[in-house]
Automatic annotation (TrEMBL):
The keyword Transport applies. Its main location: membrane. This is Autoinducer 2 import system permease protein LsrD. It is found in: Cell membrane. It comes from Jiella sonneratiae. Part of the ABC transporter complex LsrABCD involved in autoinducer 2 (AI-2) import. Probably responsible for the translocation of the substrate across the membrane.
Length: 316
């Protein structure tokens, strides 16, 4: 098989083709879809999911899962408001403390998984409930509003005609791509997903790597919370509810194996963009929300099936 053929049968290439096809089909359905204003707005709306999807790619490549990211987002969003309005701290200090809280929440997940050998699904399912309960308890069903105008710049402003948060998203994505693709840490991440026991016997820092990955997941979830609060100018305890499913869908759609050992940040980004344009394009075409969910599910199944068939073909 030639090098060109190998590239074409990669999951990411298949997904990119589906993305281009979806662009043309949806553009034909609505003249409002393929406009600069609409596309930039959709990019703004997908930033929170996209940010969390970067470390989630690492998590799933190791064969793990992090179901608590939405709850960490909600908890950190509430903490920003509480630290600022109730505790009377300057907003920059409240933001830093919120980021620290998210990082500690991710670190706690990592400790439970690595030190106590609790399966990631069980550990993060438990902390999903724990962190969401803390958010609801702290907020007492009250929202925080009235943030200063400078804070809204991150979620609502623009820099060089591009939404502000997209620059942050691009930075996180570039860092994620570089670490997973070109560093020893990235190679260790793949080794863990392929065979964790063999990685340990080879002397790789398995526990430390997984601990750092889950800690990073918590930190980036907190970062997404700051962006979210800045965009909507309010905080509520239910923020981020269900976002973990969107994140996992984007990662799996992007070609990361749920069993670990395979996946790329680039694929996650393409999967994320495909999901977003489908949601927006179908909405502009008059398709209801439940219909959009059905289409995204069908696209996920089709993309995975095509990828599996072509992978077998390439192996033969």
């Amino acid at each position: 098989m030639t090098a060109v053929t190998r590239v074409l049968v990669r999951h990411e290439a298949i997904l990119a083709i589906l993305f281009v096809v979806a662009l043309f089909v949806l553009a034909a359905q609505s003249d409002r879809f393929l406009t600069t204003a609409n596309l930039l707005n959709q990019a703004r709306l997908m930033t929170e999911v996209g940010l969390i999807a970067i470390p989630m790619t690492f998590v799933i490549v190791t064969g793990g899962i992090d179901l608590s990211v939405g709850s960490i987002l909600g908890l950190c969003a509430i903490l920003v408001g509480v630290f600022w309005q109730n505790a009377g701290l300057p907003l920059p200090a409240a933001i830093v403390l919120s980021l620290l809280a998210g990082t500690l929440a991710g670190f706690a997940n990592g400790v439970i998984i690595t030190r106590f050998r609790v399966p990631p699904l069980i550990a993060t399912l438990a902390t999903l409930a724990l962190y969401r309960g803390l958010a609801e308890g702290i907020s007492q069903a009250r929202s925080v509003r009235g943030y200063p105008a400078w804070f809204a710049t991150l979620g609502q402003g623009e820099l060089l005609g591009i939404p502000s948060q997209l620059w942050l998203f691009a930075l996180v994505a570039i860092v994620g791509i570089f670490i997973l693709r070109f560093t020893t840490f990235g190679r260790t991440t793949y080794a863990i997903g392929n065979n964790e026991a063999a990685a340990e016997f080879s002397g790789l820092a398995v526990e430390r790597t997984k601990l750092l990955i889950y800690t990073a997941s918590g930190f980036v979830s907190a970062l997404a919370a700051i962006v979210f609060v800045s965009r909507v100018s309010t905080t509520r305890s239910d923020m981020g509810t269900g976002i973990e499913l969107e994140v996992i869908t984007a990662v799996v759609l992007g070609g990361t194996s749920i069993f670990g050992g395979r996946g790329m940040v680039v694929g996650t980004l393409i999967g994320l963009c495909l999901m977003q344009i489908l949601q927006n394009g179908l909405s502009l075409s008059g398709v209801r929300g439940d219909g959009t969910t059905v289409v995204i599910g069908a696209v996920l199944i089709v993309a995975v099936l095509i990828s599996n068939v072509l992978s077998r073909f390439s192996n033969d």
